[in-house]
Amino acid sequence: MPGYFNFQLPSGDVPTALQDTRPTMAERHQSVPVPSRSRPESLTPASRPHSIMSTGSAGSRDRHTLVAKYLQRRCTAAKWLQPIEEEDGTINESSWVGVAMRLPDGSYYTEPPNVNNNFYTVMQYLNCKVAFTMSSDITAALMDQIGPFQTELQVHPRGIRLPIVQNFSELAYGGTGVSKKSYLCVLREERLVLIWNESVESIMTHGADVEGILVGLIWGSHIGTMTATTPYTSMTPPIAQTPGQTPGRTPSAISEDPEFNEKMGIIQAAIEREENKDTIFNPDIEAQTPPERPFLLLHAGVIGFAMTLVVFVEMLCASRLITEYEWDGGLLRFSLVAVIPFFVSFSLFFMIVIAGSLFQLFGPLTYVRKNSQFYSAKPPKRGRYPNLELPHITIQMPVYKEGLKGVIIPTVTSILAAIRYYEAQGGSASIYVNEDGMQAVPQELAEARKTFYELNNIGYLLSHTHSKKKWYQGKKVQDNPEGFQRKGQFKKASNMNYCLSFSIRVEDELLRLIAAKSSEEDRPEGDITPEEEDVLYKQALATCLEQDEGRTMAGGNVRIGDIILIIDSDTRVPEDCLLLGALEMHESPQVAILQHASGVMQVAHNPFENGITYFTNLIYMSITFAVGNGDCAPFVGHNAFLRWKAVQSVAYEEDGELKFWSDDHVSEDFDMSLRLQMAKFIVRLATYHEGGFKEGVSLTVYDELARWEKYAYGCNELVFNPIYKWWRGPFTKLFMRFLWSEIKLTSKITILAYIGTYYAIACAIPLTLANYIMVGWFNDSLDQFYLTSWKIFVGMAVVFNVLSPIAFAMLRHRLGEKVFVSSIVETAKWTPMFILFFGGISFHLLTAILCHFLSINMEWTATAKEVEAGGFRIGLDKIFRDFKWMYLCIIPIMGGMIYLGAFAPMGFYITDFTAIVPLSNQVACHILLPFALDFSKYFSASVPFPSIVIYGIINNFRLNTLVKNTSTHTFELNIALNFLVSSTEKSMNFRNRYIDQREGVFFKY
């Protein structure tokens, strides 16, 4: 494949050539192709020429148009610009086929000049230097192989992903996930491939490389590309580069010398082994059994130091009581000791942040890069188990009202790619969709979902609708003809329970049929063939559906394998995740949950989403640091492998039904994790996919606020009973079992600190209000034991504005993720956003906690997974709906502060700034929260957040945003107060557009 091409001036002269040099070994390692030892003279590589743009006297524009025409001739000679052949065989002289080059003024010149307008728009969107559309017999053959639901193509063994979009129009207006660094894109309707580059000299090389990749996709295996240049000077850019892929690597060329090819093959094999030493098993130096995983105690040191700080601070306060008693002999003040346990729970996380920050600054990082009992930094090696019979894996995906086109199909496409990879390794897998939304969407969309499941051999189950009758209209569920009761404030758990229970019923019926058939035919059950078992399975499924008398609709394979991969409906998974998950579960039979750290799948790239994105990344970094040093791993409810037998072992019966997930708790995943750990199973965190698992984040403050409300409610219901049940005790049975379980003590403290964080934030409003009154009116009478809000405010500012950001920046620097100074700048960029957010959620968390205590119904539906349209009126409706009670409480407080500060009678003034500042901070953040954090439509990601706040305040109610949400998860152990380290990914231009959510239209494609 040519690494460059020869230019000729209009006069026919050849520009002055650069001196040719022999490639070094480092350069040889960057490219696989092997050159022929003897070549015809015409194929001898020429020296690199000077750029044509620096020659001649023509203007800059003339030089660019000249090169564009030259490239068009070269592409035509390579048969890359052939007329498009439609599916019916007709030839279409399309206006899409051509070459585009960016001119010095930023505009684009195309050859031929009459290309479609959307071609220009796409070029401006990509902002690339040069591009062309490839239309050939190879692309035509490729289009015939692309399925109607595919969104990308996987290239083996290079790990390249080729994105597929519907048409130029969709690509032109963004929202497809294709970025400038993708370097190519397959266009389904136009039946061509768009290729672009930032180097004019490399575009032909890039095209030849892509052509070789496409041929390999069609043929089924990689085919090398002949090259006319030295194989070590390829300038091919990384195409949709994935983590771990070697940049710049090009396909191998075919040499005419077999001996030379053999030697180069040996060298290349050695290089591959060296580069992949962490994933390739070497029996000569490694044991057949996996290395033992150590039980680490470094995190115990962090917790021990934090507890020392807690005891020191609280005892320092208690010592003041003793000192005062020595002065006046008063005993009543010792009653203040009763509040110490409450403030210990509030301050525990604060002390853990201090201790953790010091360890991040000065502690070792060796264990973060190694495997341990609760942590996997390196993947298992397939070569260690050449004869392993891989287990069947069920991918369980709860679904509600998410869009088919925008959410479900891309997720299923990602899963199917992982299934194909797993099956190629000898395993088997199936998808089990827990449908809870078919009856909540229009009939045509429900039929579209069902058809899509059937076309892709996806198992699904749909239960009957939730009862619409109130509690007083009938006590028995059986008496309600409209449906049955789904318990819980969050219906995901009850949905999964119903689907798992139905699967067990089908399995039991199948075993009964197999036993009956074996007995009838007098042969062992093991002699039943797969074909016969499939027939019996269909009979068992039909029997169970008939028994439900129309309450259940199901199809496909609803059986559960040995391992469950639970995902959300807006997830992307790595291609090799099933294989590695199965291997690790085989290596560690005591592991019940293998939780994978997730990356973020951004949609709109607006400022709020960018802030939450980096916030989420830092959550997982904090968790990684803690678990890598010996803490127990969290379970976040998705992107995790579960051992089915372990889940069954902690199931329990309630109301005559078998429950796997607790539908009495909003945080059903936290409850599952506690039950499994109390049963002496291990929950493990894996990070070796390096963000290959992807999840969505909140796009709006409304969704993020609802998420925090749900977590606060969930934590409270895990710890406390509602008040009307306190005659049996204030604490739940689960919490008491947790306290007395054999979970290690430091993990218990960590979990208690996490739970206490929500109470600390929720109490901010009432405690600062009480502090305002006590310090303002009774400051001279306060006991020295009392710690004012001002002192706490200053302490938090120092820890979370100085110590914690510096520690996180240093941690990222030490891990090689980001330069220290750059990380500090990113932290400063997003600090105002998170000061405002966490300063404005106290009332909402307090409301959620009180609703549980008082048994006030509070429900959450599944979070939104795709973008929606919004506007001024919608924004006002959301503010009135979600914030009306908050404003009814906060505005009188603000009015009271103004009155007491300026108009109150003498003796009632409150002008002490140490009393005013903490409360005014809370009041201001609550009032500004829905306005200042909901102006994402007007800005690109590069706009600093303070500018967004100012613009939002000036423009008052101009609320217009795109909405999307997904749960990112429950175990936010190192997050609630570490918000000051949040930042955002690299700046990207934000392009909004309304995405058509009419899923049914997808079937037209």
UniProtKB/TrEMBL annotation:
InterPro entries: DUF7928 (IPR057688), Glyco_trans_2-like (IPR001173), Nucleotide-diphossugar_trans (IPR029044). Keywords: Membrane, Transmembrane, Transmembrane helix. The chain crosses the membrane at residues 295-322, 334-362, 751-778, 790-811, 832-855, 885-910. Residues 563-774 form the Glycosyltransferase 2-like domain. Residues 62-225 form the DUF7928 domain. SUPFAM superfamilies: Nucleotide-diphospho-sugar transferases. Residues 24-60 are annotated as: Disordered. This is Uncharacterized protein. It comes from Monilinia fructigena. The lineage of its organism: Eukaryota, Fungi, Dikarya, Ascomycota, Pezizomycotina.
